[in-house]
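Methods — Computational structure assignment.
A single polypeptide chain was analysed. Its primary sequence is given first, followed by the predicted tertiary structure written as structure tokens.
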Amino acid sequence: MSKATFEHLGRRPAIDPSASVAPTAIVSGDVRIGRETRVAHGAVLTSEGGPLRIGRRCIIMENVVLRATRRHPLGIGDHVLVGPRAYLSGCVIEDNVFLATGTTVFNGARVGARTEVRINGVVHLRTALPPGSVVPIGWVAVGDPPSILPPNHHEAIWALQEPLDFPRSVFGIPRAAAGDTNMPLLCARYSRWLARHDADRRIDAEDERTP
């Protein structure tokens, strides 16, 4: 059984001949997978209009989601392990990084070389972790320069997070006023964006590997 590879917006994946992708993984659009990288079962690697690049000898484990967007491409350096159930969207991961099970890295973030983000750690929107950082189990890194805080410090996290303006940075819409909601606008815009996948073309039967 072949892996599920898709052409999206006229772009198709390129997988180095020495790399391997599990049969149940999905690779869609402008995705490049480097030498000797391994992608495990259930992983989803999707380019939503921006490039997604993975370097050499990376390990992308089970049920990982990697998403690149037009506004926020995604880049992973060499010798990076992305643990099961991790979610990375529109971020940059430098070389020799360990992202443990359940890690979340949001749009516009940068994780410096030799960093460890431990189980269920979060690297928030537009946060920059310098090389050699450690995010403890379940903690949240937010800001540039970053603060690394336990999850029960909600007010301190929000004070740093609010000015980063998640709705505008990720979805291009203003934050709703107190007591109001922007969810109808957000969902309508995101629905139109995701509908572009209706025209995707599955290319498993073809050889998408680079020469």
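Note: Helices lie at 154-161, 166-171, 183-194.
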